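Re: the request from the purification team.
They wanted to know what the chain is likely to look like in 3D before they choose a buffer screen. I agreed to run a prediction and write the result into the notebook, where they can find it.
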Amino acid sequence: MSQNKNTGYIEGLKRFALNRPVIFSFFVILISGLLTEIPFGRIFVSWTGRPGDELVTVLIGHTLTGLLLVWLLLKLDLFKYAGFTPVRQWKAVWLVWPFVIFTLLNLDSLISGSLVIDTSRPALIIIYIFRNLAIGFCEEVMARSVVLVVMLQKWGNTRRGVYQAVLVSSVLFGVSHIFNLLAGRSPVLASLTQMTYSFVFGVAFSACFLRNNAIWPVMIMHAVVDMAGGLHHIAMGGASQAPVANSTITQVVTTLIISAPLLLYGLFVLRKVAPVEKPGSPEPLFNSM
């Protein structure tokens, strides 16, 4: 009786997710955001110090939340659409090349020598690397494997529906970064800018996810871009001495101008994503023409 009841709850949740994907996605993002804010790092502060405890909080929170989202995909029978495909099934990995450029742009301070990595704390560097891998894992599973997939199941049987799913899921992905503002990690202007360019990145990530038939490449590039952009965490002087990104109008305009072409790139790449004839068809969910 109990097993049948649990099955009924899961089927009900799946129907809700596929019939009301925007509302379902809102709650997925809200719960995921709250889970990643749990201060796990306080347990390790005596060992890691600062900013090590903050990095550990992000590492543990995002890893556990990402695994919980994978479990959700399995329970809702959507894992087969989530992009966890073997390498032999990847189709167009080269499409992630713009993210390589953004990685190099984020490394400008390291290349110029204005930022120097603090190699005296190797444990902190290792934590930092895994922290960014955890962010890439969690945020891509959330935004692409869960949110985008349920929207594609609802709207993805037309080309217009594919674009609609990508744009709406990317808006929600951008808005999800409001937690940085609510938690006091960044001021209003910087947070609004991050939400805007996260939307742009979301469109490009979604396009590469669908064209590649794989989530792994965008996970990796997401992590690498973030890793290059946050090196102040492991730099000499630490994060406390790093200037706040996008805190001036000039910085904001520059950031948006640099990231804007990525939106056009994502929409261009999407043109070869063929919609399925009907949602719920056998995998793969989408094919490139």
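For the purification team: The chain is about 65% helix and 0% strand.
Please add any questions underneath this entry.
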